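Annotators were shown the component list below and the corresponding predicted structure, then asked to write short factual statements about the assembly.
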Amino acid sequence: MRKFIVKIFSFSIIPFILILVPTLLYMKRDVYADFKQYNNYSWKYSFQQLGDLSTKKLLKAPNTKYNSFIFGSSRTTGVYACYLQQKIPNAHFFHYANWNESIGGMDEKLKLLDTLGYNISNVIIYLDTDNTFENDGACHPSDHYLLTQKSERDYMLSHYKSFFSSLNADKIKILCGMPVSGGIYPNWESDPVTNDCKHFCTDSIIATYDDVLHDEKFIHKMDSLKANGYLYKRSATQQYRPQQISAGEERMLLSMKKTFEKHNTSYYIVIAPLYDQEKFAPADMAILQRCFGSHLYDFSGINAITNNVYNYPDRKHFQPYISKMILDSIITDKSSVRVQMTKR
Amino acid sequence: MLFNSIDFAIFLPIVFGLYWLANNKLKLQNILLLVASYFFYACWDWRFMFLLIFSTLLDYYTGLKMSDTNSAGMKKFWFWLSISVNLGFLGVFKYYNFFVTSFADGLSQLGLHVNPWTIKIILPIGISFYTFHGLSYVIDIYKDRIKAEKNFIDYALFVSFFPLLVAGPIERATHLLPQIQRERHFNYAKAVDGLRQILWGLFKKIVIADNCAEYANQIFNHSATYSGSTLVLGALFFTFQIYADFSGYSDIALGTARLFGIELLRNFAYPYFSRDIAEFWRRWHISLSSWFRDYLYIPLGGSRGGTWMKVRNTFIIFIVSGFWHGAAWTFIVWGALNAVYFLPLLLTNNNRNNLETVAQGKTFPTFREFFSILLTFGLTVLAWIFFRAADIHHAISYIAGIFKPSLFSIPEVKPLTVILLVILFILIEWRGREQPYAIADFGLQWKKPLRYALYYAIIFAIIWFGGKEQEFIYFQF
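Structure shown to annotators:
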């Protein structure tokens, strides 16, 4: 028996060291912000989940700090909380978006806010025809454990496994404390108060919100993307997505509506104007209309926004001024705001 | 707790340490193992502990009653009481909703519409396995093959021994109880061998099964959108997933038991190298197929009697085996399909060929053996489609989807790393096919640094190539 124990120890020394050292470095670098609290949480590394970071930030704040929230996927990065606070009196917005946000993720975030005792006075939601209703609305597995209902231990372990399971040169550099750049290091600073992505809320940001990029360099880039097929030609007739809202997802929609009714929320559900110009299936639209009625605003499909390819810096996202246009049209009783064309 | 979890990695050394600290104290060792086993089971769902304990008490008590009585009538009474209660629980938890909804569907075909009263019930984990442990014990007592175990701790440990509690192998009282009853002394070589088998089981489960599962699920869940060649790949991924998952679990169970000085029944013997379906069923889930052979097939008459009897018994055994796996028509069709495969061999008295390992002592099989292996493998893959599909309609449309011109196109899903890992896995299994498990003798003649390097490489592969964690497939049975 002693020989067996000694054998186990001697065998385990090398793997132990090989596992212990990277684990200690992982804890020291704290790439997912799991071990320490920070003054601000920003999307530094591409493997972090925005919703997870936002939840950590929210949990640090008192529940009286915010009464208004923005939900949705990366398409909401063009929704500026600071601008909304100018439009809606007494609104204190928190940008609570997530990468590839699902309807279940949004529902869980609303439930969390309700549990934490927040007043939910105003809500802006972007629904995407291409990914909001996937996987039966399941939360993103990397989302915060208070949303995914995992234990805190499993949540931290899943971060650990995820980091080391796709180890590459950049991650090794991060472990060693060396600087990294490129795709793995987007380093988007978030506003410390509103949590707006990629910018701090300043007057100049609001002043340039409806700037339209229209210089020659931009036009040339977009024309090249069209020419090489990246910005593909869309169909001339209206296309519809296959039916996608499951029974479980419909229950999530009703749960969200119940939360809104409980808080007497002013809420705006926007179907985002995506490049593919596809609309929800009629059956899905009927579900959404049944749930949200006059709170639902459909900007998807073939229209003036989606027809203009210059509104899209890539196939998945649209320019921030489009979001401003949407917000102005839905919040100011549909009075349209002229978009200013300014040269950069 | 899963075998491939940190919880188990903490649980096992603690139990191992305490167990061997109680060396030469058999009673204490058995109590410790029993407590550990109940703790292990309670980690899954403590509510079903009561069912496990009740089933254990029932079989213990009825076993004693059968042994004590001289009356054939009373013996029969206790026997049928145990059988009916055990099967009753299994029937309610596992099959009630299936029968009720199938009955309602059948009536609706006749134009009668009823609202089936289904119950929302969770299937207690391991119920199919520990129920069959208990049944084999009771049947063996009834048939006077063994005497009832008077020591409750020993009997309870036989039913609940944690390595085999949730997914087998299905042990026999004649094999396991004597090991529980006699003293066990630490054996260094067996313990090291046990660790080696655990390592190989983890490799099969985490590297092969979990990686194959990701693509099998993707292809099966969206089968209507994929080409024929992709569907073939999906079926192959599932074929290796289910083998690596279940045999990996069995390897971990056997290796773990060996750490405690207990030998469990072998459950897999390289079934995908079988040259015919009869050989496949002698090598796949051996503990279950031998259970059905001994407790159902032979009592029904086996392969004695006329052709009709043979056909009937073969279909019964395979369909019941399919049904054991789950309450769904797909499992029944899977079983029936295997019966159709098996019958020609039985009726032509060719079901006892190929009793030895293929290409024994040689490196390569003959051309004929290779062709036979491929044919048997192909038939098995076809049957697995029913096993995996959501329903019969899905299985049929999946198979129909394969036999289209797109069968000859390049698959849309081609995870090269996983394919290479599967090929490597097949080669290692082929090399080790005459051993109890593939790496049993791998590197034993090498110098220690090289041997350790091999084990480190397997551990590294488990960490690096570990797929997205999936639950063991056979937990659902």
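Statements collected:
1. Residues 1-30 of chain A form one domain.
2. The interface with chain B takes residues 1, 3-4, 7, 11, 14-15, 157, 161, 164-165, 167 of chain A (CB under 8 Å).
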